[in-house]
Amino acid sequence: MKTDVQIAQEAKMQHISEVAKNVGLTDQDLELYGNYKAKVHLDVIKRNEAKEDGKLILVTAINPTAAGEGKTTTNVGLSMGLNKIGKKTFTALREPSLGPCFGVKGGAAGGGYAQVVPMDDINLHFTGDIHAVTTANNLLAALIDNHLHQGNKLNLDPKRITWRRAVDMNDRSLRNIIVGVGSKNNGVMREDGFDIAVASEVMAILCLATSLEDMKERLAKMVIGYTYDKKQVTAGQIEATGAMALLLKDALMPNLVQTLENTPALIHGGPFANIAHGCNSVVATKMALKLADYVVTEAGFGADLGAEKFFNIKCRQADLKPSATVIVATIRALKNHGGVKKADLNEENIEALGFGFENLEKHIENVAKFNVPGIIAINKFPTDTDAEVKFVEDKCKALGIPVVMSDVWAYGGEGGVELAKKVVEVVEAGTADFKPLYELSMSPKEKIETICKEIYGADGVDFAPKALSDIKKYTEDGLAELPICMAKTQYSLSDNKKLLGRPTGFRVTIKEVKASAGAGFLIALAGDIMRMPGLPKVPAANKIDILEDGEIVGLF
Asked: Model confidence at 107, in pLDDT bands (50, 70, 90)?
């Protein structure tokens, strides 16, 4: 069996200018990065302003498991399937972080015959967007420490600096550090730390900004710390905005690539959904909507994280109106949620499948709360038995939600035609009437409690003293009406990663709340979640190599 890398390397890619031409873009709209990648100028959105938007489809999933779900693979396959039935379609995805690429799972560009290419470039440095985010983040950190060293005109309290450094790699040793060690010339000694770059507020701003001007305004609003008398200090006061924007000017433009079947793809922005808002950029989504009949986008991890933030943060801020949601699951993953160990997932187990189906059922209920119709895509595996398939189909039909077996991994767009037809049927029925889950006028505590009870199924929320103090401070600072970006484990509906399926009788603990004033949300940290992951016992990096002839092995 061929690996994903081998399949990708055999792809017959079109020159990116041909892909662009097929969707109405000219050479003047592009900044080429070789033959198969290009940046697209933002004025494409303005030039097509009068055009009616295409239909926006969100692809989300159940809570992820070691068995795999195939959300990105389904996204790519669905976009190719829609093109096969005559719908001009874009896929709009996030950029992979080097953290998981070299840490847990390898690549993140789809799989099998439903991939975006050039897969190796996309998974590695791509067009440098994440490096630009990292550099802008760390420029601000350097300016903050220099401000302290050069006299501290703003009276910034070194113990109340909230801005952290960033690196796009899983490195637990950098979570908490001391800077300024040594002589006086090395700066002011203080506690600091690193977050993974995709958790940086700079990444969130890149993904939510609608223009260079909007991005600069957001960067200036970022709270970097507090004075000795507890007044907030912003990046604008540190005079960092212009230089940061300069570093990000190219990164703000979406990246155009293609699928294995030459369907256009805009891949832009890469926030994680467990510690950030988990959606691709607003400018990429809006651009695709002006150029296509259908746009298939994604939100990270399960619907309790990525989809909730897509609806409550991205759609609200960008005034997007999604027409349908595809919820991806596999029979293997559902059995895993039902208590079956990974080694035993190939064996038929209807009882465990029934318990695991409860996780999918909760996500179905959650999507319905946003008044967006849902479709279930069961990502097919050869080990799925007829009895298991029938069980899932019958359960979905009983809930009144369409279900389609998707075989895009093995057959590409052809394997996604039935799913594409069902998506078009649901969209053309016109039942979508999107609404957010909560009102912004609610207090931060009320918004957090609403998410935890309505989306996770928690009995209630326990706020640590620091979280209550944070909420009080942000309310005094005028940030209480911002939406909430929950940071919690992706593996469970609860804040305990060991509680699989559909747990009940639990409470969520909020240990602290952080402000992302520039991005426009408050981050509530639940349970033991951290914003800098660590590497596993055997990192993916240990198995990745490049051979003398240029062949890449082990990436995925």
From this structure: low
